[in-house]
Design brief:
Elements lengths: L19 E4 L10 H4 L10 E7 H17 L3 E7 L8 H14 L8 E5 L1 H13 L6 E5 L2 H7 L7 E3 L2 E5 L7 E4 L9 H18 L1 H16 L7 H23 L18 H8 L5 H18 L5 H13 L11 H14 L6 E4 L5 E4 L4 H15 L7 H4 L1
Parallel strand pairs: 1-8, 2-3, 2-4, 4-5, 5-8
Antiparallel strand pairs: 6-7, 9-10
Helix pairs in contact: 3-4, 5-6, 6-7, 6-8, 6-10, 7-8, 9-10, 9-12, 10-11, 10-13
This protein binds nicotinamide-adenine-dinucleotide (NAD) and zinc ion.
């Protein structure tokens, strides 16, 4: 008799991941079938869809959406969720789960459609990944952050216990349909908020993108990226394409973030804590920009960026009307933010810093004194010009 009861099983498997992100113009035009076919693995005579939509987007596009669905004979339910960063919680995920249950979703063939900004897509993505352990979904981003960032990667999540995105999964949508026409109704502040994530890509890896933002930034804001002239149309298309391409280049080889040195974490070291502490005053991209302003100064202190380059970067941030400072940024807050990020990055700072404009490196040895010096310079450079924000954009 074999008395050795300590057997060992090693299970090894691979998970192929394919997902699609594509530009689509006129998504709700009646002759455009992209939304009907997105994420569906088989054709059926009756199309059923559950659509989870940001209530504000429903208000703006709901009539057109229903007309589109009715025109194509789709049997649909629409769940309109009120959206804000403070409502990005598990409660919202449970609301979506209940709607999925009530709809009686077929598990593999009826992708959930998530229509809205980053908050809505993060909530629905998490619900889809949890529901019966995974249910396909399709993303239709309607904000600039959604188009160039939240709609491109694999991350889902909600805030929990005052921590940003503390609960979440890696679960990309099968298909993401990018129609920048939705941006025409976005307010200036949220458009600019998205430009901050684009500036991030520019600073760490794409100098041409920086030049494009510098040259066309104001027009892109005024025209809501809709391109009213051939020149601005080309600029808007190039800016969005370069931002998405840059993002995907960084994500594709590291989708599950096994490698914790990520240049796309630039601007996301101090900002998660700053954003949550300042809620609801700061938007995500605004907090990211403050982080980038601070770390630009850290780069200058370490001789990685010249003072002239720093001034160019700050001038562009101002041109885009992005805040570079918020009063919540006290030394103790920044130190705690860094400590929390070190836990998130498995014991090391792995802090991406810009090297000049368009390249990055990582450091692990930023000290509190260095941080305090950078903060003092930041306050000087800001000179009280980023008081906030509702007033500035009203
Ligand atoms: N999963 C990811 O990889 C990822 C990446 C970046 C950001 N995010 C998350 O995304 C969130 C920020 O996303 P956001 O900036 O899109 O914010 P958001 O989803 O809160 O949308 C911003 C505002 O715009 C409104 N809105 C949406 N579409 C509109 C339209 N077409 N016209 C008019 N108003 C519209 C919304 O109702 C909301 O008030 C943050 O929670 C952030 O953590 C996630
Ligand atoms: Zn971000």
């Amino acid at each position: 008799m074999n008395r050795d009861m300590s057997r060992n099983w090693i299970v090894s498997t691979a998970l192929p991941v394919h997902y699609q992100v594509r530009m689509v113009d006129g998504l709700l035009d009646l002759d455009n079938r992209a939304l009907l076919e997105a994420g569906a693995t088989r054709r059926s005579d009756t199309i059923r869809r559950l659509i989870v939509i940001d209530a504000a987007v429903d208000h703006l596009y709901g009539v057109q959406l229903r007309h589109y669905l009715q025109h194509h004979g789709v049997k649909y339910q629409i769940l309109a969720l009120p959206i804000s960063e403070t409502l990005k919680t598990m409660d919202a995920v449970f609301t979506v789960v209940e709607a999925i249950n009530a709809f009686g979703l077929s598990r593999r063939h009826e992708p959930i459609i998530a229509m809205g900004g980053g908050v809505l897509m993060d909530i629905v993505g998490l619900a889809a990944s949890l529901y019966r352990r995974s249910t396909p979904y399709v993303r239709v981003p309607t904000t600039l952050i959604g188009l160039v960032d939240a709609g491109v990667g694999a991350k889902t999540g909600v805030n929990h216990a005052a921590h940003k995105n503390r609960l979440g999964t890696y679960f990309p949508a099968k298909d993401t349909l990018l129609d920048r026409g939705f941006l025409r109704t976005l307010d200036t502040r949220h458009l600019v908020n998205g430009l901050a994530e684009i500036l991030k890509i520019a600073l760490i890896k794409d100098r041409t993108l920086f030049e494009l933002l510098d040259r066309h930034g104001t027009t892109l804001i005024d025209e809501r990226m809709q391109g009213h002239t051939p020149e601005s149309a080309q600029a808007a298309a190039q800016v969005i394409e370069r931002a998405i391409t840059g993002m995907i280049e960084e994500l594709e080889f590291n989708l599950w973030e096994h490698k914790l040195e990520r240049v796309v974490d630039y601007g996301h070291t101090f900002s998660p804590t700053v954003e949550m502490l300042a809620l609801p005053e700061l938007l995500h991209g605004e907090a990211v920009n403050i982080d980038m302003a601070l770390t630009t100064i850290l780069s200058v202190q370490r001789g990685l960026i010249s003072v002239e380059e720093r001034d160019r970067i700050f001038a562009l941030m101002r041109k885009l009307e992005l805040p570079v400072y918020h009063r919540i940024c006290e030394p103790a807050v920044l130190e705690e933010a860094l400590a929390d990020t070190v836990r998130h990055r498995d014991g090391l700072q792995r802090l991406p810093l810009a090297m000049g404009i368009g390249a990055a490196c990582f450091v692990n040895d930023v000290r509190p004194s260095e941080l305090r010096a950078a903060l003092a310079t930041l306050r000087e450079l800001d000179g009280g010009s980023s008081p906030l924000l509702e007033a500035a954009h009203a």
